[in-house]
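Hi D.,

Good news: the full-assembly prediction came through. Inputs first.
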Amino acid sequence: MTEVCVGFPLHEHFVSVDRKVAPNSLTAHTLNIIANAENDSKQIYKPFSYFYSMNAIEIENLSKNYGKLHALKNMNLDVPIGTIYGLVGPNGAGKTTLIKTLVGSLRPSSGFAIVLGLDPLKDKWKLRKQIGYMPQSPALYDDLSARKNIMFFGKAQNIPDLKKRTDEILSFAELSSRSNDKVETLSGGMKKRVSLCCALIHNPKIIFLDEPTAAIDPHLKMQSWILFRKLAQTGVTIFISTHLMDEAMFCDKVTILRNGEILAVDTPQRILQRGKTKLKIFVNNEENISIIDSTSENLADELKKFGLEKNISSIELHSDNIEDVILSIIREKEKEEKS
Amino acid sequence: MTHTFIIAQRVLNQLKGDRRFLTLSLIAPLIIIYFLKLLFDTFPPFVDVKSYTIPISAFIVHFLSFVLCAILLVQERTRGTLGRMMISGFSKTSIIGGYTLGYFGLATIQAITALAESIWLFNLNYDTKTVVLLFMVIWLLAIVSVMLGIFISTFAKHEGHVIPFVPLIILPSVFLTGLIIEPTGLPTWAEIIGKCLPLHYAVNIVHEIIKPEYKIADTLVDFGILTGYIFVLLALASLTLKETE
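Then the structure:
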């Protein structure tokens, strides 16, 4: 469906992508960005997510019904390789259903999904070697140690030198010191990290994370996102679902989902621009309220109405944050349905 | 095949780690058999309690193996590890095989200890050949129970769902399989139900081989049917355990 445009050989995705690129299709601007990225290893993920060169996931007219309940409604979605792709929506929006369909544990009622060029049902054995899945609950054996859990799921993939790989992944998730402790003795956040390690042990090209930061404290949540970004920097595509709207800002691209329906697909920055700014200007203690678009030009225009007169005693600005914007998109849809 | 051994090893590791479960599944049959001895001691001397001892011991192993295995597999489902195993690349055949193999060891120990205790407590004087055959019956029945547990677990969404299957599947075995009374006296439909239950064939074999003079050839059909249960339940479990909902 989507033609490959660009890539560079820092990850196996890129190698295959590069081969498909016609040399004359690379613009000077493109090459410049790639060159800059190669100089700065920390920025590797940027050109990848920037160019959206090839889709890791392609979904067309996908629906899933449970009897009369339409869990997914005629969904269309493309997820570019190497991005952190957020699936944001309230509980019951269909996030888990979509993820389960993509990993091949649910059969869609109609439409299809392609993950890494493979059908999740027909090519399940090929696909399962290339994907990682972290379910909503930790899905671990409490009476086994973190290491034994990781190694058990690693053995399913016949990984060479599994012990070394387990050490690497434990160190990546900063769990080395607790690796031999039984999972039942670990905190909720640590269990989530063990679960992440189990999903990452076989070096997947794409990882599905179902609400990985639900029910963990803000500090751990931030640590988890740093971990996800570190992972994305290695070229792994991350498909992540969350009901915490503010987390949309950590993603490269976001889909807002409600009742199995896509309400918006965009970068978080552009979604944020849909927000409003409430401007309160007090002139001679008299309140003037304006609701304007959250762009600097609009703000300047609004202020120009008042000039810079000395009687402006205070200005209050309240700009919508990403959570406000997403909630307003959801509310708008609710209103539309009611009317 | 390797995956089957990996799962079996994990099941054994888990059993080893869960001492409460391990103790319960090994000690509980022994305690119940001891209670049986206390009960039988109250019976008048003309009651031939010896013909009931081994079949009831076999039933206890059957019941506990079924319930414990079903509950553990349902736990796998509710915890999400079953789904994760499948997405990680384990096939359902290797999961069923791994579980069977993992419990194989436990079923063997249960069969040995239950039989040894029964022989010792009830002072049963059987020759070595009979003891070996009795062990084989209990052991086969334990394996059938594991398979039955795996099969039934596919119909349960949580541990509580296993409970209704106990009166539905296990308790009829007590009344319809010849454990307490001869099934020939039952109405035909009840006798047919009894013949569908694996315990019926185990009881038949035990009754045959505890006779002073018996021929192994007379037990072969029942042994064959009991073994057949393993393969039938294995096939049914493979059909009902779904990789995709």
